[in-house]
Amino acid sequence: MKLINWEQVLVHRRIVSAVKTVEIVSDRLSYIVLRVRWRNIIVVNVHSPSEEKSDEAKDSFYEELEQVFDQFPKYHMKIILGDIKAKVGRENIFKATIGQESVQQDSNDNAVRLINFATSQNLVVKSTIFPHRNIHKETWTFPDGKTQKNIDLGL
Q1: Alpha helix locations (H) across 19-108?
Q2: Domain range spanning residue 117?
Q3: What residues of the chain score a pLDDT lower than 50?
Q4: Does residue 155 lie in a domain region?
Q5: What is the pLDDT of residue 137?
């Protein structure tokens, strides 16, 4: 597989002709717009602040994400990927946005922020909506080598 570096974004050579726009917004946020048959696909890459960061840093990140997201037309397909650092749980109150297929029982602060953003933008957390075996849900292992979490999510 050959990849092409397009303005600091790696793009597979088969889709280079579909690249319409590449925008690096900040060190935590970038996006690529791909032209497809009837609409564009916008893939937003995020690197959100960790759970230990201040509320101000987290608020700033989600405000920036919302500003970027709001500039996209509603009819385009939007996908958010990256290092979101959220541990989404299985709370019934969030079921419409996150489903019931998470490894964790309870959501952390980053997950609540993510869920609020997703709800406001009419998005769902795809990695916790569909049923999978736990071995396929767990994306990160603690240094103890035993405890596993699902922290890599896609919207």
Answers
A1: 55-70, 95-98
A2: 3-149
A3: 1, 3-4
A4: no
A5: 57
Cα–Cα distance between 104 and 124 in angstroms, integer?
A: 17
Q: Among candidates 93, 136, 130, 137, which has minimal Cα distance to 115?
A: 93
- How far is the C-alpha of 92 from the C-alpha of 29, rounded, in Å? 30
The C-alpha atoms of residue 142 and residue 84 are separated, in whole angstroms, by: 17
Instruction: Report which of 28, 27, 3 is spatially closest to residue 16, judged by C-alpha positions.
Output: 3
Amino acid at 42: I
Give pTM, 2 decimals. 0.76
3-state DSSP assignment of residue 65: helix
Among residues 125, 53, 55, 120, which one has the least CA distance to residue 89? 125
In a domain, 154, yes or no: no
| Count of structural domains within the chain | 1
Handedness of CA 142, 128, 110, 89 (dihedral sign): negative
Give the SS3 label for residue 24: strand
With CA atoms as reference, report the closest residue to 88 among 70, 106, 74: 106
pLDDT at 77: 92
